[in-house]
Amino acid sequence: MARSTNTQFAVAVHVLTYLAGAAGRPVSSGELSESTKVNAVHVRRVLGPLRNAGLVRSRPGVHGGWELATDARDITLAEIWRLLQGADPVLGLHGPDPACATGRTVQNALTALDRTIADAITAQLEDVTVRDVLTGRADATPQPPRTG
Q1: Burial (0-12, 13-18, 19+ Cβ within 10 Å), 120
Q2: Which residues contact 31 (CB under 8 A, 6 or more apart)?
Q3: pLDDT greater than 90 at residue 24
Q4: pTM exceeds cut of 0.85
């Protein structure tokens, strides 16, 4: 069975969790690459949108590296998902021949289903923070809504 090759979300969660556990110590992209087992270039590509969103920052220099720019308790996995997934389809939709009635019907049905699935994923991820992942409290059990 084919599996998704887009690992940006998983790498982003890994990187943010690693940084949350680094206790404010700047971490090099090389160290993050070793931990995630992905190329440092891929790690930096994932870090770019996280930096643009103000979740991480980098320090130049010999003792520089990456660190969280916000508290891990304030970063939901839904925020990370939206940053990296955006409006891209979750189901990997294809573009059928527009003249094919079956293709149009299938495409319309799958597009609507894709939006429903994306909304459900986002809703579930809204209840999990990077801090939850770090402390092992992230699981598939729906959590009560956060207050305050």
Answers
A1: exposed
A2: 65
A3: no
A4: no
